Amino acid sequence: MRVTVIGCSGSFAGPNSAASSYLVSVDDGERTWNVLFDLGNGALGPLQRHVDLRDLDAVFISHLHPDHCADICGLYVAHHYAPAGAPADRLPVWGPSETAARVALMYHGLEDGGMDKVFDFGRLSDSVAVSIGPVTITPYAVNHPVEAFGFRVEADGVVLSYTGDTDSCDNLTPLMTGADLVLADSAFVDGRDEVRGVHLTASRAAQAAVAAGGVKRLVLTHLPAWNDAEVCRAQAEPFWPGVEVARPDDVYDLG
């Protein structure tokens, strides 16, 4: 399993990174399967440095805030209006309830039929796994002001945990336990952001990984441009020595 950070800026695209998007690629010996997790503001551009858009096998949307799904509109254009013609098969897009209707509303003047000509929309359910080729994706409902999911991604014994946007919650344990890599929302800063039920701080992310048990590597992500990454890393360090901070174009080879 190869995990590529397409965008890791929280809440909006920053000067050095697009908003949330992560590409998971798995080679089963016959072909490479490409599964994309989130496609936030600005992510479609850098995504094309790492994969041909026609080679995507599925897109999973953690929730319907624009920093996680806005560029699905651009992906629709790239597929539907390509001079060579649209792909023969619709691209599976999995998300919360009403994903198809909500993303269509972002596209003013969309033709009749929404985006269903290009995308095959599926609805995520808590703890109900979805298989894409050799990749198993289990969504876990998490703690955010809107319907939101984290994803446990498994292939050939390797596990990636991506929290999406969340504060502390019970589902972080099954989401993270035994993960080779955890990409954890760390948008909030201890001592600055007191509201709860929106995002993790870096210290809460680290404590959740410790409590889950068996996590091998913790990477903080979804840091807004106004955060100091070193401050966030330092707040997690007492609980997880050697904690890392995501950067665009980072690649993690797992397994």
Search tags:
single chain, 255 residues, alpha/beta, Metallo-beta-lactamase, Chain A, seven-stranded mixed β-sheet, 19% helix
Describe this structure in words.
The protein is of the alpha/beta class. The chain has a single domain (2-253), classed as Metallo-beta-lactamase, Chain A (4-Layer Sandwich), CATH 3.60.15.10. The protein is 19% helix and 27% strand. It has helices at 44-47, 66-69, 72-80, 99-105, 172-176, 202-212, 229-236; strands at residues 2-7, 21-27, 32-37, 58-60, 91-95, 119-123, 130-132, 135-141, 149-155, 158-162, 181-185, 218-221, 244-245, 251-253. Strands 6-5-4-3-2-1-14 form a seven-stranded mixed sheet, with no helix packed on it. The protein has a seven-stranded mixed sheet with strand order 7-8-9-10-11-12-13. Strand 10, helix 5 and strand 11 (181-185) form a beta-alpha-beta unit. Helix 6 runs parallel beside helix 7 (229-236). The longest helix is centred in the C-terminal third of the chain and has 11 residues, at 202-212. It is globular, with a radius of gyration of 17 Å. The mean pLDDT is 97.
**Side-by-side strand order of the widest sheet:** 6-5-4-3-2-1-14
How many beta-strand segments?
Answer: 14
Poorly predicted runs are none
Largest β sheet strand count, sense and barrel closure: 7 strands, mixed
CATH superfamily: Ribonuclease Z/Hydroxyacylglutathione hydrolase-like
